[in-house]
Amino acid sequence: MSFYLVQFLSGLATAATLFLVSSGLTIVFGVTRIVNFAHGSFYMLGAYLGWTLVERWGTTPLGFWGGVAAASLAVGLLGALMEVGLLRRLYRSPELFQLLATFGVVLVVQDAASWIWGAEDLLGRRAPGLKGSIDILDQPFPLYDLVLIGLGPLVLGLLWLLFNRTRWGTLVRAATQDRDMASALGVDPARLFTGVLFLGSALAGLGGALQVPREAVNLHMDMAIVVEAFVVVVVGGMGSLTGAFVASLLIGQLQAFGILVFPQITLVLVFLFMAVVLVIRPYGLLGRAEDAPPTAASPGPPLIPSIGPARWVPALLLALLAAVPLVAGDYALIVLTEVVILALLAASLHLLIGLGGLVSFGHAAYFGLGAYGAALLVKHLAAPMPLALAAAPLVAGLGALAAGWFCVRRSGLYFAMLTLAFAQIVWSVTFQWYGVTGGDNGVLGVWPPDWAAGKAAYYWLTLALAGGALLLLRRAAFAPFGYTLRAGRDSALRAESVGIDVRRHQWLSFALAGSAAGLAGGLYAFSKGSVFPTLMAVPVSVDALVMVLMGGIQTLSGPVVGAALFHLLETEAMSLTDWWRLVLGAVILVLVLAFPKGVAGFARDLWTRGRDT
Amino acid sequence: MTGQSLLAVRGLQAWYGRAHILTGVDLAVGRGEVVALMGRNGAGKTTAMKAIMGLLDRRAGSVAFDGRDVSALPPHRIARLGLGYVPEDRRVFTDLTVEENLEVGRQPPRDGAPHWTPDRLYALFPNLAEMRGRRGGRMSGGEQQMLTLARTLMGNPSLLLLDEPSEGLAPRIVQQMADALRALKAEGLSILLSEQNLAFAAAVADRASVIEKGRIRFEGPMRALLEDEAVRRVYLAL
């Protein structure tokens, strides 16, 4: 009995941290409508800064708590700086660009933290005066965790007062609902948003700094927490503070007790829980329909098939690419093979985002399913490569058909989070099902047969298969299917009123995109000779998203250009410097600020402008 | 008139995306004057109001308020100069209470413009006084319209841009609205209101400008519009 009580209490302590971080995220989202990936980075920075300050001052209680507070304030200032220097320039850009920009910040912060604090885990000092534990029904429980448990409701209360009893809070709530109207009443939204970013980031920083006595500070804290915080925010209902609080409590308990019942799959439990909540309560526990984000992709000008000389660009490019092995060496061919595979991955995601208006945060799942589908056939059934490559899109397509059935029932960020949930579930199963998948040892020895083993041969094979798939995707975009998808994206209501079953087309496009990603995954498996669970982890999904956004979502060539740009940049930066994340992040930030329509969109604008005049 | 106009709009153009909505609008509102901007649905009334207020991304032409060029200022700066905007679609903050809605509109007192407090507004709109703690989303259309107007008045404007104040309101509420506007005029407030309802406009306005296809087609005293059947038939009749 007492054991369960202690377990319950430690669940509450986890919930407190989770609430601090997710309250900041939900506030920032509520006001700015920005999906702020950098929120996890602010949490990590809070932990690192907290560690440094607590090392220096933390011998006394005053020094310790002063250090925590200072770390939180410093992180808050960084958040405000990000708003002024970056986000403010992007409020008129498509919403996804803001997401891309915050992802650039994530990369920069990762390398900055690694440069300042090193890659080693840092163990922090414990809080003076709270080092011990007290006995609760004969079970020891850390005093510090008891303090954290009290902190959660305290912060909730303070935030409630701030938002409901101050003029600033009233203005923030007003601007959250109708930014333009608030500004027509004399409220400067930009200043308000700077304040909101300060507050939200300071809360993330506070959550991070408070973790210092509980766990080692490391460079992986950012992504882990931001995914969890998104789950909390979505389960609680976007923009609802009380909802975030309730969701934190539930998820804290789920983790505390889930680890007893299913020690291996706590992560899956959390995502399963989110999926169930979203199926039963579409806008989260305490969210309401009007708080739901609008569909993420802005329509933009309609796609038109290229006419004139531009029509021949894809064929010309394909011919050029096919000729490359005549001049290039093995290394260049390996990189180019990867580029072609990633172009297919990005283009398949673009089918969802650009045509369907469906932003997936979990597209890596289908890339991974394709790769594992092929690799496991080879490993367990000794299947030949052509069969394995044919199975890859099938396996991934079936997976997408199953997941898509749930996902397309929701839209906007809720759709994104459901796709993320399924990706995490697939990832966890792959990671933990040692008997079949080999767990994190992966599957090795997935090589092409002799006739395709040469770098040039495999490159041509990839080019033929991926190029063919790309042409099919392009064909779909200009077929009635593509028009239907775009109609559903631009106005689901109007599309339905002329008799289109929008949801069914979205479901089909999800399956189609999934199987195209699966083919890319299968090709990837044979190009590397091995597959690992990281293929379907969050970073791959994010990479795919970045490729699509870098290229620009409003053109079909965008994802291809974006994939090439991203992968070449990444490979180049990695080979030149250890600080490739910093370089890549900085490049993303510059690109976002300089080309708010994406690179391909910018080039097309130049092209049409040149022809108009 | 232009010399001492409180609001002087010259050659105002505006676009929604690529659609060119206003092709050249000239308007003037003198101090203490009520001007009705008349026109059919889609003629450009709302767009003109939004463009004056700085709420459209793309506009051209000049807007002078109180002798100062405001055509490049963001909406909040324009509002703080004393230009109050009341949108047609009653954009009350539905999550906020009546009192909180008023608080959002509050600006410091301004020389040469009536000074409003919640209590004075509750006296002007007795309905609102009875529901201070009610959320905007739980009010009737007429109550929301009153609240939107009261909220803008909290900014102590010297000129009010009122977009279709009578639209979709019950006749009794329309009457209350007309009474309120006359009371505001008596306070010395200048008003530019857009209207389709000729009777309503005639009851409150001194002058009228008629807009059609993004351009002003008629400009003159309200009485002249009432007597000019040709203009009414061509530009206003449905």
From TrEMBL, chain A:
Subcellular localization: Cell membrane
Q: Which family does it belong to?
A: Belongs to the binding-protein-dependent transport system permease family. LivHM subfamily.
Q: What species was this sequence derived from?
A: Azospirillum isscasi
| Pfam families with a match to the protein in the record | BPD_transp_2
What are the record keywords, sorted? Amino-acid transport, Cell membrane, Membrane, Transmembrane, Transmembrane helix, Transport
What are the transmembrane regions? 6-27, 34-51, 63-84, 96-117, 143-163, 192-212, 224-250, 257-280, 312-333, 340-367, 387-408, 415-436, 456-473, 507-526, 546-569, 581-603
Q: What is its main location?
A: membrane
Which residue stretches, if any, does this entry annotate as coiled coil?
Answer: none
Report what the protein is called. ABC transporter permease
Task: Write down the PANTHER family for this protein, in alphabetical order.
Answer: ABC TRANSPORTER ATP-BINDING PROTEIN, BRANCHED-CHAIN AMINO ACID TRANSPORT SYSTEM PERMEASE PROTEIN LIVH
What is this entry's stated membrane topology? Multi-pass membrane protein
UniProtKB/TrEMBL annotation, chain B:
GO molecular function terms here?
A: ATP binding
* InterPro entries linked to this entry: AAA+_ATPase, ABC_transporter-like_ATP-bd, ABC_transporter-like_CS, BCAA_Transport_ATP-bd_LivF, P-loop_NTPase
| UniProt keyword Nucleus present | no
| UniProt-listed SMART domains | AAA
Domain (ABC transporter): residue spans on this chain = 7-238
Q: Which UniProt keywords apply?
A: Amino-acid transport, ATP-binding, Nucleotide-binding, Transport
UniProt similarity note: Belongs to the ABC transporter superfamily.
Name of the featured protein = ABC transporter ATP-binding protein
Organism from which the protein derives: Azospirillum isscasi
